[in-house]
Amino acid sequence: MLTFALPKGRMLKTCIKLLKEMNIPCVNIENRGRALVIEEEGIRYILVKPMDVPTYVHHGAADVAFAGSDVIWESGASLVEITDTQEGLCRLVIAGPQSLVNLFLKHKSSLMGIRIATKYPNITKQYFSSMGIQPEVIPLKGSIELAPLLGLSDGILDIVQTGETLRANGLQVVEEVTQVSLRIIANNKSVHEHWDKLGRFLEKIRILKERKRL
Amino acid sequence: MTKIPSGCRIYSGPKAASIEAARNTFLKVFSAFGYKVFCPSTIQLLSSCWSKLPPSIREKLIVLNTPYGEAACLRPDLTLTAVSYISSHYAPQERPLRICYADKIFLGPEEPETNLEHLQLGAELIGWDGNGADIEIISIMLKVLDLLGHNDAQVVIGDTNIIDFILKKTAPDIAQSLRNALLRQSLAEYYSILERHPVPQLKLSPLLALPTLKGETTILEKAERLLPKETPLEDIKYVISSLEKLGYAKRIVVDFALSRRLNYYSGPIFEVYSPRSRKLLGGGGRYDALLTSYGIIGQAIGFALDLEGITQAKESNTTSNWVMIWAGKASPKNAMEKANILADRGFHVELSWTNNRQQSIDLAKRRKFRWWLSISLNKIYDLGNACEYDLAEWLEKEERKC
Q: Residue B319's pLDDT is what?
C-alpha cells in the first residue's frame, strides 16, 4: 500500500483537485470528517501540517506527498522531488516597510545584522549568507507581517501570493528569494519500490501541464 | 556522566550486542575473502582531505585544532581515509589491495536528522581491474546482509558513466546544472532546466528518458531502445547479469539516474535498501577518478553500510542462544568449567551467583534468556517452552543440530 501525505489547510483543496485530475481515487478524503488517516483503493492518505510533510517523507512514514517547494527547502530533508505541479504558485520574498527598502538601496554592508522575522529560519540564513550577510533571524509561527510594524524586526521573509496582506500592513516586496510551487515528493526508498506508480504521477502531471499550455 | 553531547549516542544492552555481532559478522566474512581490517585515525588533517571532499561535506566537517596546533577534523569519510593511506603506504606491486573496516564517521547534522556520529561498515577493493571486482564486492556485501537478516535487501544499481554520456550532449553549463539536479534528486528541477534551455529534439529524448529509467532489470531493454546506440551500457549490463547468475535477480533494481552525494564516483554505483528499514542502508561504487587524484592509476570499488540501520532488524533475536548458569551451591570451579564448555560451543553465557534458585530464574526471564542451567542438578531448562533436559544429552543434541 502506498502512503500518500497531504498538507492540511488551504493547499488541501488544490491537492484534491490534482488527485482528481490525475484520476487517483480520493473521494474518501472529501468525506473524511476528523480522520487523519484515510484509505482508498490501495492508497493510505495521511493529513499532516504542511511544514511537517517533508519530515514524514524523509523518515519513510510516507512514500509520496504533495509539498510546497518552500517547505521542502526549509526542511533540508533528503527526498526525491518527482515533479513540479505548477500549482499553488506564489513567491518567497523579503518584504518590509519603506525603511527596509531604503536600507536595501544602500551599500550591502549596511544589511549586516538585519533583523528578519520569518517562518523560514533556515532559508533566511542560507539566503542572506549567500550574500555575505549575517542576519538576526526572529523565528515566528504566524502573522509575520506584524513583526516590522511593532519594531520586532526590520523586515520579513515570507510567501506572497497577491501581495494584498503586505499592502494592507504597509509593507512592500524588497527582493524575491524564489518562486514557490506545489511539488510531488517521494521517499528515496519508495522511489525504487513504487516507481511503477510514481512514474505514472510524473507522466500524468506532464500531460496536465501540456493541456494547460494548450 | 549523565549528559552526552547533542547528536551523540551511547549504546548498551541488546542494541550494543547486536551492533557488535553485526560488526563481527561483517569483518569475519570480508576477512575470509582476503580483506584486511583497517583501523584509521579518528582525527585527520584538514590539508589532506579538504580538496577531495564535495562542498556539501565540507560544510558539515567537525573541525578542530589538535593540541599541536594542526588544523584537523573528525573523520568525515572512510573511503577517502583508506585511499589516502594506501596511496602513501603501499607500492604499486603490492596491489590489488582489499581492506574492510567497521568504524565511525563524524559529520555535522543534516536536517531533519540530528546525529553527529555514524557507525559504518565498509570495504574497498583497489587496483584489481575489470568488472569482476564489482561483482566480488557487491556479492560479498549481499552475503553479509543475508547473514544479518536482510535477505530481502535490494540493491539499486546505476552507472555514472551513462549519466555523463547522456549529459555530454548538452552545453557544459547545462550539463552541470542537470547533474546537480540529479545529485539533489530533484527531477522537478531537472525537467525545468530542460524546459528553460531548449535542446535539439534528437538530443532531448535520451535526456527526458534518463530519470524515468528505473525499475526491475527488464528496464535495460527499454534503455537500449530509448538511449543512443553508443551509450556505454556494457558495465551495468555485465554487473546485473553476473549478479543474476549468482541468484540475486529478484534483489536488483536499476536506476539510470542514480547519483550519489559524494562526488568521487566514476562508473557503476549502487545503493542498498531493506524492506524492514525505511531509510537507505548504504551504498558505494566505482571511484577510479578519486584514485587518480591520489596518483594511483587503476580501478577501485568500495561501499559503506549504516551499521545502526542494519542492526535494527536483528535486535529481537539476540538472546535465543543465551544461557543463564546458576551456580547455586556448586563450586565456582565447576560453574566456570561448564560456562567454558558452553561458551566454546558458541553459546552466550551469564553466571548467576545467587543462592536463591527462583531469583536466578527470574533474572534469566527478565533478560529474555532462552536457557537456564542448574550446575548442581546438571540440568538445563528451556524457559520459553518449559522443558527440562539432562545437560550432557542436551549438549549432544545441540551439537548434532550444528
A: 65
Instruction: Report the residue from A54, A83, A193 with minimal CB separation from B187.
Output: A83
Element (H, E) at B240: helix B234-243
pLDDT tens-digit map of B67-82: 999 999 999 999 888 8
- Strands (E) located in B174-316: 214-215, 252-255, 268-274, 277-286, 300-306
Which is more confident, B201 or A186? A186
Cβ of B112 and A196 within 8 Å? no
A-contacting residues in B 265-304 (Cβ below 8 Å)? 271, 273, 278-280
**B156:A192 CB<8 A:** yes
- Inter-chain touch B215–A195, beta carbons under 8 Å: yes
pLDDT digits (tens, 9 = 90+) for B349-384: 999 999 999 999 999 999 889 999 999 999 999 998
Cβ contacts (< 8 Å) between B185 and chain A: which residues?
Answer: 78-81, 188
Residues A121 and A203 in one domain: no
Query: Are the beta carbons of A192 and B154 separated by less than 8 Å?
Result: yes
Does residue B110 sit at the A interface (CB-CB below 8 Å)? yes
What nine digits make up the cell of A163? 501581495
Q: Are A88 and A199 in contact (CB under 8 A)?
A: no
Regarding whether A82 and A8 lie in a shared domain, the answer is yes
Q: Report yes or no: B111 at the A interface, CB cutoff 8 Å.
A: yes
Catalogue all structural domains in chain B, each as residue range(s) with its CATH number: 10-137+279-306 (3.30.930.10), 154-274 (3.30.930.10), 319-401 (3.40.50.800)
Tell me how close the Cα of A24 comes to any Cα of chain B, in angstroms. 20
d(CA B196, CA B193): 5
B199 to chain A nearest CA, in Å?
18
CB contact under 8 A, A188 and B279: yes
B372, B383 in Cβ contact below 8 A? yes
Residues of chain A found within 8 Å of residue B253, distances taken between Cβ atoms: 192
The reply to whether A117 and A160 lie within a common domain is: yes
The answer to whether the Cβ–Cβ distance between A60 and B278 falls below 8 Å is: yes
Overall number of domains in chain A: 2
| B185–A80 C-beta distance less than 8 A | yes
Average pLDDT over residues B211-233: 94
Asked whether residue A189 falls in the same domain as residue A174, the answer is: no
A74 and A111 belong to one structural domain: no
Residue in chain A nearest B113 by alpha carbon: A77
ipTM: 0.88
| Single-letter amino acid, residue A35 | A
Mutate to test the interface with A, among B193, B279, B312 (most CBs of A within 10 A): B279
Say what the pTM is. 0.85
Question: In one letter, which amino acid is B215?
Answer: G
The answer to whether residues A96 and A163 belong to one domain is yes
Domain that holds residue A81: 2-89+181-213
* List of residues 6+ apart from B366 with CB closer than 8 A: none
What is the distance in angstroms between the CA of the first residue and the CA of the last residue of chain B? 44
